[in-house]
Amino acid sequence: MIDLHTHTVFSDGELIPAELVRRARVAGYQAIGISDHADSSNLELILNNILPFARNDGHFFDINVFCGVELTHVPPGLIGDLVERARAKGADHVVVHGETVVEPVAEGTNLAAIEAGVDILAHPGLISEVEVELAARRGICLEITTRKGHSLTNGHVVSLARKYGAKLVINNDAHAPGDLIGLDMRRKVALGAGMSFEEYEQAEQNSRQLVQRMMNRKKG
């Protein structure tokens, strides 16, 4: 299993990085991406602290550890610049907090994230067909989330992703120990959202491909 959307005490998570990573490993994960909530005020704070942890400490946990950010409630007009800034500062991956139906995310966030070329558009809510088609063309991964509330529109995302051939990944959006679900529940969430078993397996493969891309970036 791979989870590329998790949070620590550097935003609104409950765990320090070491405990999050250890718990993920015990839960059966082979790779984890720490992606704390970020905007222009704290992006460097997150990366300056989590990046050294991921690089220097990660391998001691017997799990691949990556450091990214989740740009959250950032005005759409600023997303492109912050994506570039995060990557220039060394972020392994960039996630954008999509237009979930349970939070007042600014309209246009989904489109701005896709146009900026993020790695993952998290819980994109009632994403439009135009946006999903663009995500498919640009290879942007849309998230199927196991998180309560955000998961309400998983079925909608699966349906449009199937229609336009967009890539899906499955993430926990973990904030607390109990959010790191096991393989059986992870599969049930995917199938419950309307995925076929083959589509579920492809989503897991998409996560593995993202990990490989991040490892290639490190080497580069």
List keywords for this structure.
220 residues, alpha/beta, TIM Barrel, seven-stranded parallel sheet, 8 helices, globular
Describe this structure as you would to a colleague.
With 220 residues, the chain is an alpha/beta fold. The protein has one domain (2-219): Metal-dependent hydrolases (TIM Barrel, Alpha-Beta Barrel), CATH 3.20.20. It is built from 8 helices and 7 strands, in the order βαβαβαβαβαβαβαα. The radius of gyration is 16 Å and the shape is globular. The two termini are 25 Å apart. The model has no long low-confidence stretch (mean pLDDT 97).
Side by side, the strands of the main sheet go 1-2-3-4-5-6-7
Question: Can you tell me the CATH class?
Answer: Alpha Beta
Pick out the low-confidence regions.
Answer: none
Report the span from N to C terminus: 25 Å
Per the CATH scheme, the topology name is: TIM Barrel
Alpha carbon gyration radius: 16 Å
Beta strands, count: 7
Tally the helices: 8
The main sheet comes to: 7 strands, parallel
CATH 2nd-level architecture: Alpha-Beta Barrel
CATH superfamily descriptor: Metal-dependent hydrolases
SSE string, helices as H and strands as E: EHEHEHEHEHEHEHH
Write down the domain tally.
1
Shape summary:
globular
SS content category: alpha/beta
Arithmetic mean pLDDT: 97
Helix fraction by DSSP (H/I, runs of at least 4)? 40-55%
Strand content: 15-25%
Question: What is shown here, in short?
Answer:
Helices cover 45% and strands 18% of the residues.
